[in-house]
Design a protein that fits this description.
Number of strands: 15
Shape: globular
Radius of gyration: 32 Å
Strand content: 5-15%
Largest sheet: 6 strands, antiparallel
Number of helices: 22
Structural class: alpha+beta
Distance between the termini: 49 Å
Helix content: 55-70%
Amino acid sequence: MSRDHVQSAERSADNAEAPFLELLARGASADAYEQPVLLARAEGRPPERIAALEQAKLLALRVRSEIEGRRRREAELSALFETAHDLAGLRDLDAVLQAIVQRARSLLGTDVAYLSLNDEARGDTYMRVTEGSVAARFQQLRLGMGEGLGGLVAQTARPYVTDDYFKDERFQHTQAIDGGVRDEGLVAILGVPLMIGPQVIGVLFAADRRARVFEREQIALLGSFAALAAAAIDTANWLAETRSALDRLGRANEIIRDRSGVIERASDVHDRLAELVLRGGGVHDVAAAVSEVLDGTVEFCEPGDAPTTAVEASRAEGHAVRHGDDWIAAVAAGGELLGALVLRGHPGLDPVDQRTLERAAMVTSLLLLARRSASEAEQRVRGELLDDLLDARDRDPRLLRERAARLHADLDGPHVVLAARLDATAADADQEAAARRRLWSAASHLATTRHGLAAARDGGTVLLLPLGPGDTATTLARRTAKDLGTAVHGQVTVGASAPVERLAARPDLVAAAYAEGLRCLDALRLLGRAGDGAAAEDFGFLGLLLAGDRDIAGFVDRTIGRVVAYDERRGTDLVRTLDAYFACGMSPARTKDDLHVHVNTVAQRLERVGRLLGDDWQSPARALEIQLALRLHRLSSAAPH
């Protein structure tokens, strides 16, 4: 090629980006990016100019896609933040739910969005909020439990999507539902569950009047809106229960005031309990105060520690009941039994003293609810701060420090990120969810007591704990595994990152450290060390690959990539055969016993491996690289996706 021709090609490449930069600047549609190439062909431009334009077009389209993705994510985060803000200032539940449905419809770009709730009293579900609906019959639908796509979502507690509702036989079609959907003209429907704990209370839907495939990100976004809607409903229910408890407390106070003969004593009880509440007293302080007023011994008992029959009778009647020489008042709120107050050895209790015991039980329930609410709120705040550190790179360091300081955490000091998982296999989804909640609760308590942070993530828990004097990442990981295992009565495996510092200024370090902790966690499981804790430093040479920004995928691909690709294309077991071959000391006879195949089969597979990797694949140097690549391939295959 002549020098003039080379220079011409370079000039073509240099100028190829210009028209696409202009298209990016004015936000042109994707179709417009074909015009510069078509124009160059029409003008008979040289092949190298057209090739340069094609390359520039592909690059520009990738940039455009990235920009659109960022804009979409910003819009989604903004909508979720606004919804969370609405929830924080909850006044009108209907307004919050309407805003959630509107935002879900807007961001997913669907024709219709709607939310249904379960009616426990009538044993069916009903439309609570709709957006974009035009059919009156659809807006007034009431569905039996388990019917329609919503019934499938409620039954499995998982999202479900149908590209064509009337052709989908996975769920139970009924005349009422099909008629309403047909009136609305819906075709593609996505439903995600609204859950309070393990209980499905309703379903949030997004639907189109044409065939459509919902992407994974859109399903996850609708799930986030469903979680916020469930939180709004749960908060409203809790407020209603609290108001009801306060109303009952007020009625009890009126009864006491009406008894003029014992007004002074009732006033004394009121003052004592009010003082306890105001100065942050606990349930045992209430029991001590009532013991003094009633001139007896009052004890608070956890659920199960008091006589079951008497407690259930008190709970059902709403009054203290006699049990032998004792009096028992159930401590309950919103249908949940929290414990009981037991007055010992005081059979002759007059009605006023009985009401005093009942009032104390009510105050005790409020104190327990307040303590639980405060604890759950702090756990949520700690989890939200850690989620922000894990998910977001661009954050204001000053605001991060202020948020951490309110939780008595110091982000500038040395910390370790720990990934924790339960190793026991649950019998069903409910038991697994309960086990995860126990792990999350134990991790949150541990983070609170050690001035750290904790959040639920990837089916397990992630903790950010300060590194104390004399501690290492390894000792902290082992201690955390032991503490969490003791708390949940099971094996908990913990992988730790290397120490990281100044996290307020460099929040991106947290995500990288978490990835390192996950790799260590997977390495422990592969090595059969369930219930243990370790950091990358514990794995010797393999730890160098587990830590930091290593091109592990590239190494695996260069070393055994052709074998992995062959298995994926042909459905063969060459990788598994290689694993067994090295594990059996490179003996075909022992390998065939391990794989339960004929020795000729082993020989044929190894011959195929030789053709893929080269004749020297069993040389010491190559064999070492291949064994390391196999181990790293197992680690990457075991990592969560």
